[in-house]
Design a protein that fits this description.
CATH class: Alpha Beta
Distance between the termini: 11 Å
CATH superfamily: Response regulator
Helix content: 40-55%
CATH architecture: 3-Layer(aba) Sandwich
Structural class: alpha/beta
Largest sheet: 5 strands, parallel
Mean pLDDT: 95
Shape: globular
Oligomer: single chain
């Protein structure tokens, strides 16, 4: 079962997303700020990280840079998840190292498609 790290500070978003992803066959681990997200990524080694960008303690851009700079997690795909939907926001997320970019409110089918694309054969069917 692929393990996803969901880094999200909003309780409602975190609960809704984690339940829906678990129903689709993913194990979901959770961090509530960017610093905890970096720590959990390096300790738990998830298959993919879903990263909110506007986070307390350490924002999602810097958390992604740190995850991508660490030898254990440098190859881990990171999907940005943000309410900021401008082209510049997408470019900034990709420049920080994100492999995918999804906006809030979450279009779950599109998020799943992005996750499946990035996980390839290890995605549940």
């Amino acid at each position: 079962m692929p393990r996803l790290l969901l880094v999200e500070d909003n309780d409602m978003n975190r609960d809704m997303l984690s339940r829906r992803l678990e129903r689709r066959g993913y194990e979901v681990i959770i961090a509530v700020d960017g610093e905890a997200g970096v720590r959990m990524a390096t300790e738990q080694e998830p298959d993919l990280v879903i990263m909110d960008l506007r986070l307390p303690v350490l924002d999602g851009w810097e958390a992604t840079r740190q995850i991508k700079a660490h030898p254990v997690t440098c190859g881990t795909p990171v999907v940005a998840l943000t309410a900021d939907a401008f082209v510049e926001d997408r470019e900034k997320a990709l420049a920080a190292g994100c492999d995918g970019f999804e906006t809030k409110p979450v279009e779950f089918k599109r998020l799943l498609a992005t996750i499946e694309l990035l996980l390839g054969e290890s995605a549940p069917r």
